[in-house]
């Protein structure tokens, strides 16, 4: 289980749907676009997504959510459409209360992240795509229709059975390099994440999604990462994304899994790439002035970044106002700034005061 505490809330979306979202960590807001097989209550406790959540929450204000029909979000009976996915992503960003966010589009979350970022350039600071796609399987290769239909039937017939053999088909395709513990957890996540009928709708719907018309409109800095041996989303699709997004950076991850798993070098490299690409993480990673701050100094900086004056900070921390004034002056020296305004700017750039 993660050492971070998550807060779960619900964002109203179209058709009366409620989209469950969770926040954890502190720093620049990073929204993980919804993808298949998530459950806010369970995924952070499992060895597949848990290490992702732990690592990202250490660096950022991580916001993640369950797509409608999955996890804690409202049930769904309608087909899975790109327009609905983007609407739900927008609902979560609005509900979380951030004017600008970085977006992480992993796997099926890539299409929604691409479309949202293209339509809302003022709301997206950075875009990270990991083993993502703009074009579903049937857009890339229309001849795959028989295989997609067969997979959808397999899912609907076998998804909810106690026997994990049906779900193991997907686990093997997604994560051929998984440990026994990781494979079992992913088998369980499939059953927990959504109903067999919804899983079948996801298989069919994502195969037909096409966000490629939005690629040319992207203007935010974009990092595209793709596992060399990904059997779920072809490596060529990652290359396609990078080639069609102006100025995108393309990084190859040496893994046979759909996305990197904790314990393989590709996971650590992926997190290092994200950390070097996005704005300052919690505590200002990479800046010695922030790295050396004590817990009390971080608390003080957080309150400064929120715009509180010395009297308000004193009341919040239970200190004398003179003590706060002296501590603030010492903090200016540590941060190598001359005044409160400069300290606030640096603090907010590092992710303080925006959670």
Automatic annotation (TrEMBL):
Q: Which UniProt keywords apply?
A: Hydrolase
Superkingdom of the organism of origin: Bacteria
Please list the GO terms describing molecular function. Answer: DNA binding; hydrolase activity
Query: CDD domains under this entry?
Result: LuxR_C_like
In the UniProt record, does the keyword Hydrolase occur?
A: yes
Domain annotation HTH luxR-type: ranges: 286-351
Which SMART domains does the record associate with it?
A: HTH_LUXR
Record-linked InterPro entries: AB_hydrolase, AB_hydrolase_1, AB_hydrolase_fold, Sig_transdc_resp-reg_C-effctor, Tscrpt_reg_LuxR_C, WH-like_DNA-bd_sf
List membrane-spanning regions.
none
Return the protein name. Answer: Alpha/beta fold hydrolase
């Amino acid at each position: 289980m993660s050492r971070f505490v998550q807060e779960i809330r619900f964002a109203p979306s179209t058709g009366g749907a409620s989209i469950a979202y969770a926040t954890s960590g502190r720093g620049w807001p990073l929204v993980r676009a919804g993808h298949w097989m998530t459950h806010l209550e369970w995924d952070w406790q499992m060895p597949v997504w848990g290490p992702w959540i732990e690592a990202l929450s250490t660096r950022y204000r991580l916001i993640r959510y369950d797509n409608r029909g999955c996890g804690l979000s409202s049930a769904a009976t309608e087909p899975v459409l790109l327009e609905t996915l983007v609407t739900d992503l927008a609902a979560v960003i609005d509900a979380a209360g951030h004017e600008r966010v970085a977006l992480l589009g992993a796997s099926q979350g890539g299409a929604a992240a691409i479309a949202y970022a293209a339509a809302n350039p003022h709301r997206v600071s950075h875009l990270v795509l990991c083993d993502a796609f703009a074009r579903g399987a049937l857009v890339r290769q229309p001849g795959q229709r028989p295989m997609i239909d067969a997979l959808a039937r397999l899912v609907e017939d076998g998804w909810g059975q106690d026997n994990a053999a049906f779900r193991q088909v997907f686990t093997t395709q997604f994560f051929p390099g998984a440990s026994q513990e990781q494979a079992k957890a992913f088998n369980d996540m499939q059953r927990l994440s959504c109903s067999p009928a919804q899983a079948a709708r996801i298989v069919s719907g994502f195969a037909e999604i096409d966000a490629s018309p939005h690629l040319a409109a992207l203007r935010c800095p974009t990092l595209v990462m793709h596992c060399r041996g990904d059997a779920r989303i072809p490596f060529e699709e990652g290359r396609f994304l990078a080639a069609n997004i102006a100025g995108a950076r393309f990084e190859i991850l040496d893994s046979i899994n759909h996305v990197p798993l904790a314990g393989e070098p590709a996971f650590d490299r992926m997190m290092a790439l994200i950390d070097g690409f996005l704005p300052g993480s919690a505590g200002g990673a990479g800046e010695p002035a922030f790295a050396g701050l004590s817990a009390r100094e971080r608390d003080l900086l957080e309150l400064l970044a929120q715009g509180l004056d010395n009297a308000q900070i004193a009341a919040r921390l239970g200190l004398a106002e003179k003590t706060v004034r002296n501590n603030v002056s010492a903090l200016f020296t540590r941060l190598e700034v001359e005044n409160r305004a400069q300290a606030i700017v640096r603090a907010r750039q590092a992710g303080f005061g925006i959670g």
